[in-house]
Amino acid sequence: MSDIALPDPRRAALRRALRHGGLIAGLAVVAAVVLLAVFAPLIAPHDPAAQNLTLRLIPPAWQEGGNPAYLLGTDHLGRDYLSRLIFGARVSLAVGLSVMVLSGLIGATLGFLGGYFGGRIDDLVMYVITVRLSMPGLLVALAVMSLLGGSLVTMITVLSLLFWDRYAVVTRTAVRQLRQADFVTAARVAGASHRWILWHEVRPNVMPQILVVATLEMAMAILSEASLSFLGLGIQPPTPSWGIMIAEARSFLFAKPYLVWMPGLAIFALVLAINLLGDGLRDVSQPEGRR
Amino acid sequence: MLIYLRDKLALSVLVLLTVSLIGFALLRLSGDLAASLAGENASLEEIAALRHSLGLDRSLIVQYGAWLADALRGDLGASFFTHEPVSRLFLDRIGVTATMAGLALVVALALSLPLGVIAALRPNTWIDRAISALALSGQAMPGFWLGLMLISFFGVTLRWLPISGSSTPAHFVLPVAVLALGAVPALTRLMRSGMLDVLEQDYIRTARSKGLPVTLIMLRHAMRNALLPVVSLSAVQLGALLGGSVIVETVFAIEGIGLLTYRSIQRNDFPVVQAMLVFVSVCYVALTLLADLLNAWLDPRLREA
Amino acid sequence: MNQILKNLSVLALCTGLPMGAWADASDDTLHVAVARETDFIDPIHTSSADGDLFATILYDTLIYVDRATREFKPALAESWSWLDDTTVEFRLREGITFHNGEAFNADDVVYTFGLLMDMNNGFRQQQQDFGNIAEVTKVDDWTVRVRLSQPQPTFENLLASRIAIWPDDYTSANGHMIHATAPVGTGPYRLDSLQAGSVYTLSANADYAAHARPAPTIGHIEVRVIPEIQTQIAEVMAGQLDLALSFSPGDAQMLEGMPGVSVQYGPATRMYFLSMDAAGEGENPLADRRVRQAITWAINRPEMTAALISPSAPALTSQCNPAQNFCLTDIEPANGYDLEAARAALAEAGHAEGLDLRLMAEASLRPVAEAIQGYLSQIGIRLAIDTMPLPAWRTAYINGESQMSIVGWGSGVTSADVSNTLGIFFNGSSTDYVQDPDLIAWTAEARQSMDPARRTELYRQVYTRINEEAYVVPLYGVVATYVTSEDVDFPVPVMDFPDLSLVRWAE
Question: What was the ipTM of the complex prediction?
């Protein structure tokens, strides 16, 4: 099917990857955050939940009144901010990754089925997608979270069940365009099974689009967690998450802005890195001669 | 084409029924409405009486049936909180939210379409990188945080723009900016990737190799096909904008349907939340219908489906 | 692309246009911000601090509570007297007209009381607040007699807050719901327009008949609902607000010392306590007094109050706010902070290795919940926290699902007396997690006793029993915060029941 055959596509992809600055940078940041999250108990200088009201709102060490024992200062309950940031990486990553994968499985599967088979199956898929799209995600999440309370598992489940729509819509549209492409028709004529065609012909061709959505979706999940926290329905204490930290610190937005900036920057950096990674993967995984 | 339309409409009705049923079940499970409505000092007897007077002591199916029958007659009930008809609460507020979401979508498209096209035409150059960096930065900021930052800079430090409310056009600048910036990254990236894909397709290559001017190719073939996913996504985005208006309306104190719904969720004002769910549902259905038609118009191949 | 740029620049130009006036005295409008919307703007349909803000200036009550002294003073009633323990007679003021020109007389009072007594009207907490009114009689055009079923020493609190007087002709012609959108009263301000939940504009009633409350001096009031406090702070910093009423002391602290802004604190009647499921059955560690004592002793209330609420907020030692009538603060045992005693009590109760408990709280109380979580972890109690929106919490609490809860209670003039705050938590109802027969009897008697000495004695018994048994942990009292611009002269009221008609432009 490929009209240009590379000697070894994998090696070529790797070569492209190593030359792709954005991909390397994104990968580095994401890897660093993952390491931080995994080894949080070893790295964090303090217990993130240990409070001391006599030591509340200490500024970062380099500012006047700072304390070297608390490098980034303390929050409104006197808890070490650096340690909370480090442990917060766990929640934000867990939410982002789980939601990305779970919602991706739901959405992409629906999109493939509907886009490829068409007909009744597509009607059913369209029906499910439209039902989901018809419900305002954030509002339904709010209603459900206020009903069930905010545990990590609830948060991930609710977001996954709500935020697969973009996968489904994009995949379905892309697959629909592909299903009458020459190489698909050729494979069908050659007697290939639907499963084989879907996996070997269609999937690689829509993967770049799914990857783009996946990174957007992971970013969305991390931001949604922050938004729900802002509206008072975040994960229950004392688990710190970056979203919760911003929400808690917002009373100090004008007085101690660094309390908002730090977790904000953490989210910003992580989301940016995920997106760079996604962009890079897309560039690399897309064999030039394919279409 | 007519059959296509008829099927779409049938689907829409089914979807609306499903959403209203899901919403109904979901909301009725969310605690004892009467207890939360009766007030801080209310006794158990008062709560029971209230429950009865609101009809909350009937079975779920009966309640849904009654609600549906009323809704079909155009009666969405009255708010438990203010006793105003839900339809009036909505009509009073929909204009502000719709203006905001519509403006935001227009601004977002106006920014993201050209940005996406430029990026795709010059892939992997500094222009492309700058555009994606810009898009990525917009994406990476939580809306409420961005809103508060804009308020503190443009409203407090510079005093160029009003901070909260919706009484003059100037009041809409900051909220629309926040909403639009939230939508720009996704649209730009999708436009860029769609354009890239299309530009690599055989017929474009052929056209290029024939020496047709790039702009002509773009307008005639590439844009059209690259727009397909963007149109789909725009419909989705408009819904997301309506939902995302909760945050923006809270931060900027704009009395729209987002804020109304958020408050209603908080105080279990069930008729309002239910009506909001159905309303958004109607919007989505109408928009996707429109998007499907647009897609069919843009890509004749899809029409046969 | 060029077209787009052009459109954008047009948009940018448009937005540089009108900005709305800066807040100052030039347009004679007082710009006020609150954080929460209210369901009704009259005090009969609803009962909340959010509604009272409007109700106080739109309507008059028979008697007025003086904001500087908390004394009851004549208002629509020129005088009133108790004929016996259950009958009060009002002598009405003559020559007063409602905003619509209708004349005020005894018929309006009789009509309004008639609505209060008709339980079909579904006013908020109608049974609780108005259920004791048995009969209203018009003696003559300017005299009305009201009889109660039971003696009620706190009835004047209601007369001065919830019982506004409606015009009988207007209300019966339009239905009482008309007061939600087109209120007509005798108050110092009338409503010009409202966008429910968002903007309310009022203007001074030029014909206002001053009595204990003087005639208004500011021409217009605009109240805006701004839900996000940070946005309100920004409005204050930008000089757009004359008065902000919803700040916590912590938020207000940041504005102290800002040029042009004045921050004042005043007493409030609201209080917070930690509720424990003392009466719960089954395997319930909180049924053990020693566990409850351990929890009480492990929480450093003064430290927590000063750090999280305000240095000027009262840390409570008994189950009442010192701003309330009949609050006693010298109760023994005072149950102060004592970690050693707490650990010992917990060990004695058989929980030396620790204990798992659940705490529910409304979402905005999260910092307090986390602080309690931190304190209790010091004695080995692992506290799981559920924060939720207020209605969800209230539902769970009424349904008996709370193991521990942070409960906030009371506000305004109806809570000026402790009977309201002790109210439903020790009276044997579904919200009573203690179910102590003595407490039920004592609070019931105190509620109806007309003898202040007897009430003091009964409440002393109540507070002492609560502390001895550590049934609840009284946490802290609230401080009312008033942020004003320097253009405004705002007399801080003695309780969190401000009267906006008393605000003046500064000289």
Answer: 0.78
